[in-house]
């Protein structure tokens, strides 16, 4: 069953995805608006402390992706805010589904650009350098990687988690 909260979250994520696709970034003021909307909802539900804890947990968990260069700073903030909005164990399935959607989009991009094999070799070398502790690989990021709009992966992951599973 679709609740009012699900519709509001979906609408806000659609607006966020539109901003991300158009400007290739999500403004900080919009992140503040999303955080405040979630905080107001949490106060009304008498779960403000839980909201803050889940926001910080989502933020710190997703920061790993930022530090290895996989996602941008706005995506980290969006994942943290979404973790606060969801506030239950389904966060893990939502994050996993979002990552699978991102991997599928990246795979489709590689096949479409006809550079699948060379990208796999480059990605393998990048991961080996990361595990060997070479900071140059971490600082430079994955060479030649074309960024994707991760907020659409977050939106699709949310829809799959809420309406399919």
Automatic annotation (TrEMBL):
Keywords noted in UniProt: Membrane, Transmembrane, Transmembrane helix
Which InterPro entries does the protein's record reference? Prepilin_IV_endopep_pep
All residue ranges annotated as the Prepilin type IV endopeptidase peptidase domain in the record: 8-108
Record-linked Pfam families: Peptidase_A24
Alphabetically, the GO molecular function entries are:
aspartic-type endopeptidase activity
Q: Does the keyword Transport apply?
A: no
Give TM segment ranges. Answer: 26-44, 51-71, 91-112, 144-161
Q: Does the keyword Hydrolase apply?
A: no
Question: What cellular component terms from Gene Ontology apply here?
Answer: membrane
Would you tell me the protein name for this molecule? Prepilin peptidase
């Amino acid at each position: 069953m679709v609740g009012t909260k699900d519709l509001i979250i979906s609408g806000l994520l659609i607006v966020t995805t539109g901003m991300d696709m158009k400007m290739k970034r999500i403004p900080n003021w919009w992140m503040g608006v999303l955080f405040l909307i979630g905080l107001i909802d949490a106060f009304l539900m008498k779960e403000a402390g839980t909201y803050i804890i889940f926001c910080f947990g989502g933020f710190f968990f997703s920061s790993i992706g930022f530090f290895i260069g996989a996602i941008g700073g706005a995506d980290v903030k969006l994942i943290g805010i979404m973790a606060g909005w969801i506030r239950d164990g389904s966060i893990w399935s939502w994050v996993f589904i979002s990552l699978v959607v991102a991997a599928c989009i990246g795979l489709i991009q590689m096949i479409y650009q006809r550079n699948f094999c060379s990208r796999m070799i480059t990605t393998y070398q990048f991961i080996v350098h990361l595990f060997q502790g070479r900071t140059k690989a971490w600082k430079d990021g994955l060479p030649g990687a074309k960024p994707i709009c991760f907020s659409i992966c977050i939106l699709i992951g949310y829809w799959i988690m809420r309406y399919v599973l």
